[in-house]
Design brief:
- It is a single chain.
- This protein is of the alpha+beta class and 397 residues long.
- It has seven helices and 20 strands.
- The strands form six sheets. The chain has a four-stranded antiparallel beta sheet with strand order 9-6-5-12, with no helix packed on it.
- A hairpin with a 2-residue loop joins strand 1 and strand 2.
- It is elongated, with a radius of gyration of 33 Å.
Length: 397
């Protein structure tokens, strides 16, 4: 800007450069801020002209000086349309599915219907999506279910039902279902698109509930924002260790067990019916499971029974029964130990999980044992959670 001082004119260096480069009328040099809308304290907005003037009197609200929509109006519209998505106003997509909990069969059915508007993940602008289910808390490998993959689609249709067996009412009150959508890549690692988490306590028994959810990113790890990257990593590690120490025993699958005290034969009939969502112990993602039972104390070690081995499965069906000759009064002092193992040829078998039933047990184990003693000659079936620890067991097969 030219400033008059007395009888002399002082010319700024910017004006000198403008005169040298652009002969003719001298115009103010534009600044970076001139290319962005300016906002008044009252919330009015609109691009400011280089001369510092605002909107014209005949300007339409929500438009700039050229009649085009202003930046703020575009942002508001995008946010409203994308209110349930993230990733800087880029939609990750929506997923439709239904959940049904059947109380009498202790099963949870998830019917994955379709997805709409998924985020493109491949070079062709499409994706190869599939849906994964996890029950939390719990070992992911033990309870992971997945749909088939739909090729080259951003609006895939599955209409596929995935079922969890052995889901008790206690599980429905404390567990969460994680539903995630991923893109399958044959040459590289599969890519995560988005997820949502549903608390199972929201469901009512024997009633279908339909969901149409917006996919979200993975929840960020809790860490102080003002710390450096190294300190944030240490903080996250310590928090994870603390959560791991406070976490209950790791779940390794479910076992459907039947108990029946036979008065006529004078003994306990133990039925090993089936297992569900066992932990994978082999490199192929499966296990070769079998079940062992002991009735302790067992001084002479004659109470061991074993089922047959089921090859390459995480959901084996055994339907085998074992009989223990004992009196009804002795059962109150005995404990039934049930363990599940992975058979390995030529080396030690791997312990998958186990549970114990007796008067010193807790929760469902104690309830099952008590119902068996209380109701003679009646067959009592119940699902039990297999954990990675077994009280009093040495894990020797």
């Amino acid at each position: 800007m030219t400033v008059r001082r007395g009888n002399k004119l002082s010319v700024s260096i910017q004006e000198h450069m403008a005169i040298d480069v652009c002969p003719g009328p001298i115009r103010p040099i534009r600044q970076i801020s001139d290319y962005f809308p300016r906002f008044s304290p009252t919330g009015a907005e609109g691009p400011v002209s280089p001369a510092g003037q605002g909107q014209g009197q005949g300007q339409v609200p929500g438009q700039g000086a050229t009649g085009q929509p202003s930046l703020q109006s575009i942002t508001d519209t995008s946010t409203e349309w994308d209110s349930c998505d993230s990733d800087d106003s880029t939609a990750l997509g929506m997923l439709e599915f239904t959940l049904l909990y059947e109380k009498h069969t202790s099963s949870l059915h998830c019917t994955v219907i379709r997805a709409k508007g998924l985020k493109p993940m491949d070079f062709n602008g499409l994706a190869d999506p599939y849906v994964k289910l996890h029950l939390l808390p719990g070992a992911c490998k033990a309870n992971k279910l997945k749909t088939r993959t739909v090729r080259n689609s951003l609006n895939p249709i599955w209409n596929e039902t995935l079922t969890y067996c052995g889901i008790t009412e206690e599980d429905m009150g404390r567990k969460t279902l994680r539903v995630s959508v991923c893109d399958e890549d044959k040459l590289t690692h599969n890519e995560f698109i988005g997820e949502s988490r549903i608390a199972l306590r929201r469901l009512k028994a024997n009633q279908i509930k339909r969901f149409s959810i917006c996919l979200e990113h993975l929840p960020p790890l809790p860490s102080p924002t003002a710390m450096s990257t190294a300190l944030r990593g240490i903080s996250c590690y310590l928090n994870e260790v603390e959560r791991e120490e406070q976490r209950p025993l790791e779940e390794r699958g479910r076992l459907l067990l039947s108990l029946q005290f036979l008065s006529g034969r004078g003994g306990l009939l133990v039925g090993i019916l089936r297992c569900a969502h066992l932990a994978a112990m082999d490199v192929n993602g499966f296990s070769d499971p079998y079940v062992k039972t002991y009735l302790k104390p067992d001084v002479h070690k004659k109470s061991k029974h074993k089922t047959i081995v089921k090859k390459k499965t995480l959901n084996p069906e055994f339907n085998e029964e074992f009989f223990y000759e004992t009196s009804h009064s002795e059962l109150s002092t005995k404990t039934l130990e049930v363990t599940v193992w992975d058979y390995d040829l030529g080396k030690s078998n791997d312990f998958i999980g186990g549970t114990t039933l007796g008067m010193n047990s807790k929760g469902d184990c104690l309830k099952h044992w008590y119902e068996c003693l209380k109701n003679k000659d009646r067959r009592v079936e119940q699902w039990h959670t297999l954990t990675n620890e077994l009280p009093g067991s040495t894990y020797n097969d």
